[in-house]
Design brief:
This is DGQHR domain-containing protein. The chain is α/β, with parallel strands linked by helices. The chain has 12 helices and 10 strands. An 8-stranded mixed beta sheet has the order 3-7-4-8-2-1-6-5, with helices on both faces. It has a two-stranded parallel ribbon with strand order 9-10. Helix 1 packs across helix 3, helix 2 packs across helix 3 and helix 6 crosses helix 7. It is elongated, with a radius of gyration of 28 Å.
Length: 331
């Protein structure tokens, strides 16, 4: 049912045209949005439905996101009035600014999980929230389905690497991963990609480095050690490896040293080694002993056709890490 028991009015609406289509922009309270919008399920009786059932986890995740308060910004929902909302300008002098009179429910084309999360949030917190929206005055059923399909198949989310880059000021590991890509004294400076797109010569993504940093640091107790010192340990470790194997480090095509499965293994092994040279959070790292141990990794065959030819996946990394650690830990 798209019939409304009573009409609703939305104030402060901007009317404009997009590609010849009349459209509106404004905001409305959540309790009104929940009353005047509806979803066309894929099995709609008209045969023109297209929406899947809402994913409960995504709804719950958005409700949790809203609990962050003022930092929880979100994008406008997209709706189709199907000619059932009437625009009335406030004055002749400003014909594009006025109010919308909502006579029937509008179809929610994009924002089902946001609306679901908002509904849960306001019910649980007994609070109110304004929802920004963009509305088309009229799209027929086929136009509506086509736009929905475009939004959900052509649009592409940002990469996990770029996401980590954007969080570099608030997340320690994201900052370290970014530094490993952007610092000229980093062994990954000429290998890393911030956007996550691999190109010739840049096959290590920022997301890869985020995971590598996490593997390297997770077994050690740092207490109040600042992030710069943690980054310094990562740089020390991998710079030593690059010095041991300069040709292998720079030749991705013929050697596996900088393939992700091997870098992950090295990070895991390095984590255990670091723990040996930093017994607890109150002691400093024995840098000299740490570096001497790393240098025991000489004479490993990293060639493509070598012993690691068929190594793959996280299990492969874990297996190799044990062997690498045993070599470094041997006295």
């Amino acid at each position: 049912m798209i019939h409304l028991a009573k009409q609703y009015v939305i104030e402060n609406v901007l009317q404009y045209k997009m590609r010849g289509k009349v459209a509106y922009q404004s905001y409305l309270p959540a309790f009104i949005a929940l009353q005047i919008t509806y979803v066309k399920p894929y099995d709609h009786s008209s045969g023109k439905g297209y929406q899947r059932p809402a994913d409960t986890k995504r709804v719950d995740d958005f409700a949790s996101y809203l609990s962050k308060g003022e930092d929880a910004l979100f994008t406008p929902i997209l709706i189709n009035c199907a000619g059932n909302w009437e625009f009335s300008a406030y004055s002749k002098e400003r014909p594009s600014f006025g109010r919308l009179i909502c006579k029937s429910k509008a179809s929610l084309m994009d924002g089902q999980h946001r609306i679901g999360g908002i509904k849960r949030y306001v019910e649980e917190t007994n609070s109110e929230i304004n929802i920004p929206f963009m509305a088309f005055h009229y799209l027929d059923d086929d136009e509506e389905i086509k736009l929905f399909d475009t939004i959900n198949t052509k649009a592409k989310g940002i990469s996990s690497s770029l996401s980590k880059f954007l969080k570099r000021e608030s997340d320690e590991l994201s900052w370290m991963a970014t530094e490993l890509v952007t610092r000229s004294d980093s062994p990954f400076y000429n290998l890393g990609s911030i956007t996550g797109k691999r190109t010739k010569g840049r096959h290590v993504t920022l997301q890869n480095l985020y995971r590598i940093a996490n593997y390297f640091l997770k077994d050690s107790k740092f207490g109040t050690v600042i992030k710069d010192e943690k980054l310094g340990l990562i740089l020390t470790y991998f710079n030593q490896l690059r010095e041991l194997y300069p040709d292998e480090w720079s030749n991705y095509k013929e050697h596996r040293l900088t393939h992700i499965v091997c870098l992950d293994a090295l990070a895991m092994a390095g984590s255990r080694l670091l723990n040996d040279y930093k017994k607890d959070e109150n002691t400093h790292v024995d840098y000299q002993g740490f570096v001497r141990a790393i240098k025991r990794l000489r004479k490993i065959d990293w060639s493509i056709e070598g012993p690691f030819k068929y190594l793959k996946g996280i299990n492969g990394s874990k297996t190799l890490s044990k062997d690498l650690y045993e070599i470094m830990a041997s006295k």
